[in-house]
Design brief:
With about 190 residues, this protein is an alpha+beta fold.
């Protein structure tokens, strides 16, 4: 990569940009934790994929990414610098392409990527993330219940036994209803 013309002020400002534990990320984590959700931070959801999510809900297979408006080209707030314009356009477009690739790789592995813009209120983002996690957990519990019923039937149980297992599995999974109020936002671009 060729050296870019820059001023000492610009270099100093850019070197102070945080990539982890930004204010919005910490505020989102606090809101999620306060709502009773537990998660891991800064983890790679899928082995072999060198992409790190900001918040990871392992059992639900949900990876949350908090995207900066400048760095990821927010459709509402992105600005295109005039200085070194070609470099910055290529950099931001590259980030957007990597985001789409990350979402696709996670989906192939059975994960759901949820993207949160830095300008979104943390409380609203936390509600959206919590709904997605609850829905994914309910779906997983329903699939497990269906497998239990199938194993019961395959083992030669009577129809009444299978209905009892199905009823118990459904009760343990909960009703699984979660409003679909803006689950995962598609990547920008």
């Amino acid at each position: 990569m060729e050296a870019l013309e820059s001023t000492p002020d610009v270099r100093a400002r850019m070197s102070r940009q945080k990539s982890k534990d930004t204010k919005i990320e910490v505020a989102l984590r606090k809101a999620l934790h306060a709502s009773g959700l537990r998660f891991r931070v800064h983890g790679r959801p899928v082995k072999g994929v060198r992409r790190e999510a900001d918040i990871v809900f392992g059992p639900a297979r949900v990876a949350v990414f908090v995207d900066g408006c400048f760095w990821h080209g927010c459709p509402e707030h992105a600005t295109w610098p005039r200085r070194n314009a070609e470099f910055w356009r290529a950099k931001i477009e590259g980030n957007r392409a990597r985001d789409r690739d990350t979402d696709a790789r996670l989906a192939e592995a059975g994960w759901l990527a949820v993207r949160v813009w830095e300008h979104e209120p943390p409380a609203e983002s936390a509600v959206r993330v919590a709904e997605v996690v609850a829905r994914r957990k309910a779906e997983r519990a329903a699939r497990a219940a269906a497998r239990r019923v199938a194993r019961t039937v395959a083992a030669g149980a009577t129809a009444g036994d299978a209905r009892t297992v199905a009823r118990e599995a459904t009760a343990s999974a909960g009703d699984g209803r979660v409003e679909d109020g803006g689950a995962a936002r598609p990547p920008a671009g």
